[in-house]
Amino acid sequence: MKVTIVGAGNVGATCADVISYRGIASEVVLLDIKEGFAEGKALDIMQCATDTGFNTRVIGVTNDYSKTANSDVVVVTSGIPRKPGMTREELIGINAGIVKSVVENILKYSPETIIVMVSNPMDTMTYLALKSTGLPKNRIIGMGGILDSSRFRTYLSLALDKPANDISGMVVGGHGDTTMIPLTRLAAYNGIPVTQFLTEDVLQKVAADTMVGGATLTGLLGTSAWYAPGASVAFLVDSILNDQKRMIACSVYVEGEYGQNDICIGVPCIIGKNGVEEIIDIKLDDKEKALFAKSADAVRAMNEALKSVLT
Ligand SMILES: NC(=O)C1=CN([C@@H]2O[C@H](COP(=O)(O)OP(=O)(O)OC[C@H]3O[C@@H](n4cnc5c(N)ncnc54)[C@H](O)[C@@H]3O)[C@@H](O)[C@H]2O)C=CC1
Ligand SMILES: O=C([O-])CC(=O)C(=O)O
């Protein structure tokens, strides 16, 4: 199985690294516009093979899309990350043009591929990729909810002082500091609702910390995060390539689900070899429904902003 990752920067290279050492794909192509950069990252990752014991072939190329031909999955991480104090939405001006040209080039060589969108603002870039290519909606998947859910589970694990892997929880809605919705009511510690262990105040703090999880790391690091984002992309790619049919919160095109239409937004999906195989329309309570509608309005407004950026 072949995966191409466009953008060999922090997230792209980390994702290539995790895909390789977990043996998720037999071939990974890293592509970047910076001369020699992807080649260097690929060689460095390949030189881990004997110590960590993997056989994935990793190659790096500078803007040579012919080497990406017949990729089963293409991950798009090309574009700029935010700096401290910025929102993801402020990246739209530069990243929209990059994403549009990248997906056009990709489809010339891999017309049947499934695209995983990472570049921010991710919900908007997912919508842009869908609309500009006309691909079927099952083949364009935005990565955000899985990362937000990992952060949610981490903050819950810290509050409970219990292992994160014993905790389930999901974040839906937009992948933005104010648009994501950690579903605290449904989070559980080995099947037991966390509401039995944590006070409402603590749960509200966990939700607030989750929502600004990316901004907190950007403030600490000076650029946005990459270890957890790279691992989240690899998890998603694994579910596609190995047809695992995991339920993962992803940004996908909705047509009536959650009362929304014509936007890409984070909802629970079954992810398998066909990409998005099903959207799980879970029952939200009235408060969650109102938050989802507000989130959807904000996501829709960004899609409107695309028009001025691309003309
Ligand atoms: N959806 C999510 O959950 C997350 C999204 N991100 C987003 O992912 C993107 C990448 O972040 P980082 O890897 O930290 O940035 P980075 O700056 O480390 O890497 C981006 C790479 O893209 C390359 N690039 C730029 N234009 C290109 C083009 N036209 N073709 C090929 N390569 C090109 C750059 O040369 C650079 O190497 C950002 O937009 C960031 O906001 C980051 C973390 C999580
Ligand atoms: O915070 C950012 O800008 C990058 C991102 O989407 C994340 O780490 O969640």
TrEMBL record:
It holds the Pfam family Ldh_1_C. The gene is mdh. It is an enzyme of class 1 (oxidoreductase). This is Malate dehydrogenase. The keyword Metal-binding does not apply. One of its GO terms (molecular function) is L-malate dehydrogenase (NAD+) activity. Belongs to the LDH/MDH superfamily. MDH type 3 family. Catalyzes the reversible oxidation of malate to oxaloacetate. The lineage of its organism: Bacteria, Pseudomonadati, Bacteroidota, Flavobacteriia, Flavobacteriales.
